[in-house]
Structures are given as C-alpha cells and as structure tokens.
Amino acid sequence: MSEIALEVQDLTRTYGAGDNAVTALAGVDLAFRRGTFTAVMGPSGSGKSTFLSCAAGLDRPTGGRVLVGGTDVTDWDEERRTRLRRERIGFVFQGFHLLPYLSAAQNVALPSRLAGRRVDRERVRYLLERVGLADRAHHLPGSLSGGQQQRVAIARALLTSPDVLLADEPTGALDSTTARQVLGMLRGSVADLGQTVVMVTHDPVAASYAGEVVFLVDGRVAGRMAHPTAGAVAGQLAHLDELVSA
Amino acid sequence: MSGLAVRSLRHRPRAAVATFLAVLLGTLLIGSFATLAESSGGAPAPDDGTLIILGAVVGGWGALIVLFSVASTVAITTTQRATEIGLLRTIGATPRQARRLIARETGAIALTAAVAGALAASVTGRLLFELIRSGGLVSDRTEYDAGPASVAGAAVLVLVVSALAAAVAARKATRGPAGMLVRESAGEHGRMRWWRVAVALLLIGYGLAMAVITVAVTADSDDPYAAMSTSGSSSILVGVGLAVLAPVLLRWAAGPVRLLAGTSATAHLASYNTARRAHLLAGVLAPVVVLTAAAAGTLMLVDIDRRSLPAGTPDSDTITLLNNVVVGMISLFAAIMVVNAFVATVAHRREELHRLRLLGATPRQVRGSVVAEAGLVAVIGVVLGLVAAATTVVPFAVARDEGLVPDGGLWLVPAVAAAVVALTLGAARGAVRSAARVTV
Fold first, then answer.
1. 69-98 in chain A: CB under 8 A from chain B
2. Is CATH 3.40.50.300 the right assignment for the domain spanning A4-245?
3. B153 CB near a chain A CB, below 8 Å?
C-alpha cells in the first residue's frame, strides 16, 4: 500500500474559455501522507473548493494528475469515479448531507448499501458509538441537532475506512462548542484509526486542529505551516499577500 | 409581498406549471359539463332532463375528482416550501406575511389558469354538446344555449378550492416557531387531521351504501338503468375516499415491501422514502388510485351492461357512449395528474438526489430508486383502486344476475392495471430524467 493517501501533481482547472476564462487552480502540487490531518486554507476564490472537487473526482481537472492511494484516477470515467468516491473517499460536507428519510444508523450504512455489500452492523454500531451517538441510532436527521448530524456524517465517512476523508468546511454551520467536538472527532480518527483527513476551511481555530496547514492563494500553494495554532494561522492569513510576493 | 411573490414564482417554474395545469384542466372539465346543465334551461322535454343529468351528475363526479386533484397539487407545492418559508420567517416575515405570500402566488397562477380554462371550456362545452346531439342523446331541436355563467361558475368553484387548499397548506407550513422550520422539512409530518379522516370515511361510507342499495333495492327495479345509477358512482366515491387517506395507506403498505428489498440499495432507499415521506408521495398515490378506480369500475360496468341487456335498447348505445366519454375524460385528467404530481415531487428532490451522487451512488442507482418508488406507489395504488372498483362492479354484476364475479370482461382488470403501472413508471422516469439533466 502506498505511503501517500492522496496526491495531486501540477493540478490546473480553468473555467470558461477565451477572454472569460477563470483559472481556479494554477498548478498545485500536494501530497498527503497516510495518517495525517491537513487543513487547506485560503481566502474566497483561492481554489480550495475546486481542489476538493478535483481530488474527489467530482470535477475533471483541466491539467495535471490526481492519485488516490497511489492509483492515477485522473482519466477514469464517471462510473469508475463514482465507485472511487463510494469505496475509497469519505466525505464530510458543511451542510451534513444526510438523507432525511433514513435513520442515523441507515445513513451511516448507506455507502455499503450503495456498493451492494452486506451491511456490517457491528461496524455501524462501533462508529456511532465513537461519535457518541449510540443511543440515537434510530433517530431521523430531522430530530438531531446540527452537531449530531455532522457526527453522523463523520461516522458515515469512516465506514469504508477510505484512503482519504475529505471535509469541506465541516464546522461552517456549527456553533463553536459543537464545532470543537466535531474537530476533535476528526483528529481522533487520525490518531486512533490512522485515517487520513484533508479539510478545507477558512476558520483558523478549525485549522489549528490539523497537523499541518497548506495555504492556497490564487490557485497556487502559497505556504505551509506545521503544528499550527489558531493565532499563528490567523496571523499568516492576514499576511497572505506577502507569502505570494515572496 | 406581491413583488416577492412574482419573483418567487419565476424561480419555481415547475411547481407553478403543476398548479397551472391542474387548475386549467379542472376548470375545463367542470366548465364543459356545466354548459350542458345551463343549456337545459331552454330545451324541450325530455332533452332538458338528459342535459341536467349529464351536466350535473357526470359533471358532479368529475368535479369531485378535479377539486381533489387541484387541492392535492396545491398542497404538494406548498408543503415542499416549508424550508423556504422557515427561512423567510427567520429573517423577520410574520406567519401572516408568509401565508399571504403563498396565497398571492397560488392566487395569481390559479386565476390565470382558471380564466384560460373557462375560455377553453366555452369551446369544448360546445363540442361536447355537438357530440351528444350527433349521438342522438338529445333531439336536433335542442340548441347549445350556455352563456358565460356556467363556465364562470366552474372557474370560481375551482378558484375557491385552490384558495382553500393553499390556505390550509400555508397554515400547516407556518405553524410553530420559525427556527424549527429552517431544518430540513423531513420525517413524518404529523398525523392526519380529523376532518380529513372524516371526509374520507364519509366518501367511502357513501360509496358502500350505494353498493348495498344496488344489491338490496335497485337490482329488482323494472328500469334496467336504476342499478347503474346507484352503483355507477361507488368506485369513484370510494376511490377518492381512499385517495384522501393516501398518506396513511402508503405508510402501512410500504412496510411489508421492505422485507422484500434484500440488499438492493435502490429498493432500500425507495421503501424508506415511501414510508417516511408518505406525505409527499401520497400526492402521487392519490391520482393513481382514482385513475384505477374510475377506469376499471366504469369500463367493467359498461361491459356488464352491454352483455346483460338485450341489444337494441334505444338508450343503450348512448349510455355506453356517455360512460366512455366519462371514463376517457377522467382517465385523461387523472393521467395528467399522475405525471404532474411526479414532476412536482421529483423537482423538489433534486438536491437530495445530487447528495446521493456525491456519496457514491451511480446515476443508475439514483434513477432506479425513484423508479422503484414509483413502482411501489403504482402497485399500492392499483390494488386500492381495484378494491374501489369492486364496489361498483360486484353490486352491478349481482344486479344483472351475473353473480359476484362478472361473466366476462375480466381481462379489463389486468389491462387497466398494466396501463396504470406503465403510466406511473413512465412519469417517474421522465421526471427523474429531467431532474437528472441538471444534477446527476
């Protein structure tokens, strides 16, 4: 098994053509080792979301390569990329994205269902217990709080032990207390389960839970910071333009 | 508020089209028959009686179905907006303002559609009259003589029902504190209100009573059509009654199906969506039940009549023609409602279907789950519809001395069932395909 969970090489993505062309990613090289927790930060329009979409196979890059667990998936067709998302990538979204008519346990088990595999009830129960919702297994999302819904989403993302868990502003819709719980759980999955987590965020506090922060500006990697603290990240964000000119 | 209503409508063309079509066709159908009733005024006997029966009785059954469909379409499109209404209220709209927004939107669409429907009805009413006269139901001396009163009356009736339906749905959507509503409008939406259950039981009870009267009283009448006049409407009455109870029936019926789902992801998703969001899919189940009940009930009624009466009765041809016109119009209307309801329901679920794609469902699985739901709804609807149809067919067969099971025409049952299932699946496939163009 490859040491690198997710890697992008010279990733570019341009929208539109001619004079109206907008470059969202202008040659990004990043590699995420297994069992690491990385935050990708940057101002609006820096290419964070495009990076995530390309890495997950939701969007096709204009140029460059995407490797998941050492396999080049750039040229895979829609069918294969769907299977890739289902089996080797876990997703946590800002808006939770639970299915409203499935209970918490059924939502967690959904990736297995979609893959047509037997549901490992033991693992579903274990994951719900990990996120502290063992007693809510049969509740529908409508009767759970935002923090609880996001915890269900994390359990769902961990179900298949994916190569990489991609989190898109996972705490964007949560208050600071529940946000801390959710971030703690993401970090716990890295420390306890050896999960690889890549999280896009613009919140310095959220980024401080990661082992490393990567700064994107104008579709390029503008800097990195190991062992980030909220204060250091906030300071760096305030001076991103200097990183670019440097 | 009016400006907001207009902009909100532009943003939601599909839901607007659904309401528009329901009101337009509803006014057209009721209006056409109303012109017959109005024309009866100057007609010589016995034509005046024939026209009254056609206009009032036939139009009456039709009106029941139409009004029910209009109400359920308006309810679907309003219920789907619970989240948006919650958002409006969080940013400071009072429940009253939110209700007014819904009322104005529905009002604007319904008014346009009703006017268009009334204009069209004054043309189709004339055509219907010509059809009846050329069929020999009324003599050549009788002239079409309907002014704007009947079609306008039909338009007002449909408008009042739309307004009431919008008011009920809006009240439901604005109950409770605003914050609660921003959450995804999901899960089991409460229980059925008592009056809804009461209306349903009343309709079913009335239909069953007519069935009993057919067997016990009118079967022995000298007039061969007495039994038809009492049993004919039972299937439609019971069908509409069952349709009113659709959310509960759907929830009950979806349970056993789950046991058959096995490991198939599409069947799993479909069965849970059907059970837990029965209030949404009920809007599709209702027209399926009514369509099956009206088509199977009336077609078999006509078939028994044709077989058991000696040929050449002067009335028989015209009554057969009339029954077929009724079946045709009601079936066409119900078929459009099935398609309509599916488009409205699936359009609302676009975001959710996209979510499934993000989680790794193949486009096939997403489409499959919606089509499987449609299959479930179709099967449940056909079964309920056939039960309703039996309340017309069995008493009439007994009255015409054929026994509990008619002597022939049983092929009509699988034929109607197959047609309804095909229509429902086709509607779902079309709806999900158009939703898929954007997301899947």
1. 78-79, 82-83, 85-87, 89, 91, 93, 97
2. yes
3. no
